[in-house]
Specification:
Length: 299
């Protein structure tokens, strides 16, 4: 029987899977993303080679941390490019995996893959446009528009949008190495721990940090709602594991929109509009499987 390979290549960990969908998962393996891409990719290759002894592996999908070159005509298509992750700049992920496994390899960003996975299965199926935002070590966003992960000049970089920053109320300068106080700079997990002197998971639900966090995330969501007009927004990543953050973000989003868009999704139905991932911590890797099944790459 034909099976598909999926890799969620994250900045912290790799998740490898052989599956046909969430109900038919053959194997899954998680391991750290080290500073040595050759070694990390070799572990993934060994996993898929072993699996290929018992199933027919037809296509491999990859959802990668970025920035990644998705321009088919580019000489560095399928490369992780100028990433801040040590050891990984200019790594030819697609080329290496294709050479080792000898099957077609399709690639997108981790967040476009996660958006596509949520779009492919479960209650978010065929919701279009669908946005997926991860709030973790970094902030990143992906979108499915017209049935496909969205690309343009490059892939979306929603984590680096600029949001109003009142330095009198929040003097924290931000942690983004490129922009300082962009969304990621102000609201990523590392931004929280640096601002408050404790990691996000150590901050109690009633700490003012969560109001500040909800404020920035809601400003970002308002901008994204006004530009993409998404039919649903999925919020994933480590920081969003804090369930208490969801009602705060929803309420602030409504407050900032100020009844401007009169759709039930932004009023009574907002609990079904800004939602956690249906696929939990498997959105990215199952999204990579969904990309492989669809045969979608950046073309
Ligand atoms: P990555 O972005 O590297 O893939 P994650 O999505 O797991 O990693 O995000 C890691 C971040 O999430 C860390 O900054 C951590 O402090 C934060 N985090 C993890 N669990 C929680 C939690 N329960 N509540 C709030 N923050 C959390
Ligand atoms: Zn930035």
């Amino acid at each position: 029987m034909d099976y598909y390979g999926g890799i969620e290549a994250g900045g912290t960990k790799f998740v490898c899977m052989v599956a046909r969908g969430p109900q038919d998962i053959r194997a899954e393996l998680r391991f750290p993303t080290t500073a040595n891409p050759t070694e990390t990719l070799a572990r993934a290759v060994a996993f898929f080679k072993q699996q290929a002894q018992t199933v027919n592996l037809v296509v491999l999908g990859v959802g990668s941390f970025g920035p990644v070159d998705l321009e088919p005509s580019s000489a560095t298509f399928g490369y992780v490019t100028n990433t801040a992750k040590p050891g990984w700049p200019n790594t030819n992920i697609v080329g290496l995996l294709h050479a080792e496994l000898g099957i077609p390899v399709v690639i997108d960003t981790d967040v476009n893959a996660a958006a596509f996975g949520e779009y492919a299965w479960g209650v978010n199926r065929a919701i279009d446009p669908l946005l997926y935002l991860t709030v973790g070590t970094g902030i990143g966003g992906g979108a499915v528009c017209g049935g496909k992960p969205q690309h343009g000049l490059t892939h979306p970089e929603m984590g680096h949008i600029l949001v109003p920053h009142d330095r009198l109320r929040d003097p924290f300068p931000g942690v983004c190495p490129f922009h300082g106080d962009c969304l990621e700079g102000l609201a990523s997990g590392p931004a929280m721990s640096e601002r408050w002197g404790r990691t996000a998971e150590m901050l109690p639900d009633d700490h003012p940090a969560w109001g500040v966090e909800a404020n920035y995330l809601a400003m970002a969501l308002v901008n994204l709602i006004l530009i993409y007009s998404p039919r649903r927004i999925v919020l994933g990543g480590g920081v969003m594991q804090r369930q208490a953050l969801f009602p705060l973000v929803r309420a602030k989003t409504q407050q900032f929109l100020n009844k401007y868009i009169r759709m039930p999704q932004l009023f009574s139905d907002i609990d079904q509009y800004i939602v956690p991932p249906v696929l939990g911590n498997q959105s990215g890797v199952l999204g990579a499987i969904a990309l492989a099944i669809a045969g979608i790459d950046s073309r």
